[in-house]
Design a protein that fits this description.
Zincin-like fold; binds (3S)-3,7-diaminoheptanoic acid; binds zinc ion; 8-stranded mixed beta sheet; Neutral Protease, domain 2; alpha+beta
Amino acid sequence: MALALKDATPAAPETIYLKDYTPFPFTVESVHLTFRLEPRATRVISRIAFAPKGHGATLELHGEELDLKWARIDGQEVTPDVTDKGLSVAAPDQPFIWEAEVEISPETNTALEGLYMSNGMYCTQCEAEGFRKITFYPDRPDVMSVFTVRIESDLPVLLSNGNKGEVAAGFAEWHDPWPKPAYLFALVAGELVNHPDRFTTASGRDVELNIWVRDGDLHKCGFGMEALKASMRWDEEVYGREYDLDIFNIVAVDDFNMGAMENKGLNIFNSSCVLASPDTSTDANYERIEAIIAHEYFHNWTGNRITCRDWFQLCLKEGLTVFRDAQFTSDMRSAAVKRIDDAMELRGRQFPEDNGPLSHPVRPESFQEINNFYTATVYEKGAEVIAMLKRLVGDAAYYKALELYFTRHDGQACTIEDWIAVFEESTGRDLSQFKLWYSQSGTPRLSVAETFAEGTYTLTFTQETKPTPGQDKKDPKVIPIAVGLLSPNGDEVVPTTLLEMTEATQSFTFEGLGAKPVPSILRDFSAPVILERDVSPAENAFLLAHDTDPFARWDAGRSLMRDVLMSMARGESTEDGPLIEGIVTVLTDRSLDPSFRVQVMSLPGESELAAALFEAGHTPDPDAIHGACETLRQRLAERMQDELPRLYAENQVSGPFSPDAKSAGKREMANAALGLTTRLDGGALAARQFADADNMTLQIAALSRLVQIGKGEAQLAAFYEQWQDDRLVIDKWFGLQVGMAAPERAVDVARALTAHKDFTMTNPNRFRATLGTFGGHHAGFHRADGSGYHFLADWLIQLDAKNPQTTARMCTLFQTWRRYDATRQGEARAALERIAGTSGLSRDTNEMVTRILGD
Ligand code: B3K
Ligand code: ZN
């Protein structure tokens, strides 16, 4: 009986702790790998030179789903103890050679981790712990080594990391001179064609560049290549970082769990994040592609040359690289628009995470499955922490510290302590309190009181961070608060000043003022905090009209809008006049960047409004929130009726398509005007734009507007007909139908699409376009009867058996379930418990649903 019970109960998942870190007891001097590629029986032969650091250590190697054929130490056959996690074997006390041959099956690998196949092409994804599905190895980032790889296959293109070695019919050899952890290993083999180019580095190294794609996609590579060269130049000019190999390859892959991967010298991209053409890609796609190419390229220094000691230090490479790609985008496009986009992203994705059941520090202290920690907190809040550090120490000190970081730690696997030490040493500042940003989870809330007497204005701030799972007590953090003061007639009397808050409550005074000023607080979003300040509609309207800081100006409009929408959603009678007039003034101010004007008129997400209502002590009603947003848009459209044709006409872009920021901004404005017009003209203008469109930005905007008002049947069919052979466009076709569905229809629309012949569970892009878009449809997913929750849960249960990583990530759509009423909560809990109770559930998904349920 006891035995039967034991068999029926799966082993409790193991939790890994930061505090338990121990170094690997061997160094790895070199790694030689030979791959004999076969779809279901690939042989991997490894030859690894180990050197023990001490005496008597057992060699323990990771390995999962590997069929070990033989193993030798110094030429002698050995019989290691093999488990489902790896192997162990007695090791000599002197340097020795480990050799092994394993068999793996790339074709049946639907998890898309390790070596797998996508449309007949072999490719890999090793970060975080996928290399152990390729061969037995110490698969941890602090074990760095030099790799030589031989690929044997009849496929025409055989790629791996580093520089090219011997290539002949049937094989290719690659050698990567830079020591790297196994998670940066990559291999690609297939019938690929390349878009070639060259780049000469600042010191004169001639680098061969290639973007490898399937035949038929070659015309979609030009933009990505330009973005790559711009990134290479930017990193030289801004950070003094040069590329360090003779070749840099990018490969586009259709089946990929995330956006892209920075493997040394061989970046692998989700095809949606690299391929672009005017007729198939929107301006937003172009901007995203440019940013992701830059991000992966920048990892070459921040991630690859200097890597992480362990996965708890993930923000060391990700936070810094996100920060660097944001700097790049600001330089390439509009810094103000980028800052606002980032603030929206943080509030929309990271704040809910930071303040919900999945809350964790920027540097987590424990995990079960590391893939679950590639989060908005590690990435985006991690980048904000660096932005604050730069603000606090100043630009010159920041770049000086970075220089020290690169010289001191090149070739090493580092920690946040190493990173902080570099700043402390180069600036002389004590950063121990600042470091709390890495260890304390939750979003600080900043409340503000003001007094004015005899020309002296005092701002008193109080910071508070609510308890988060596993962390009840919070200490005050260092918060850089950028403030400016405006006079009552709208002149700036105190320009942007950085206040450095370190106490729980702290006052700052400004003297010599003629009248009580209007404060503009948290300019440029100087810290990732929630500002809790009761501002009258009149004051927000004043700031929206006069603030000199674009972020603060936009944010004043946002607050005004949030307040109006919240009271509308609660059925209160609402005065929206100042808001609408404020928006109209900005929208029609031709001296402003069109993109910025569109940002000012765009509404907060419905989920963000639900969060705001919940924070204010109300139970959010998704339908009422949706209704409030629709009503406000309708009122804006009616108020703008006379202006819209002009706004639309003056933002038409003529000539050949160019995705530059200026042209994109005009198209964005024209599409915004189209959106409002569609509420008034029954879709006439949208139908015309759809018929005339010569690029995807215009075509898909027109189609979306039509579908949104319940029309567009013919256009949807025509669009499908036109693009049925282009997977990336068909992803858009799936996504827009779900995204634009009326709340009461969203489940049915999504369900019908999952029965479409082009729907597939095995392609993450298609799955996300359909089910991910559905989970993001606030009023559709949170339907009162719970059908949204159960529909998504059904699909996640199915997907988990094939692809745990993507399933676990999509479970986050449930993270806000406790905000809603008891009926919804009951249904969400039931759906989550069904997932949790699925037999054979992956460790990935199990960890996520357990945390989300939280009890
Ligand atoms: N480093 C990869 C992400 C890997 C995710 C593994 N689950 C892409 C990036 O951040 O650049
Ligand atoms: Zn990254």
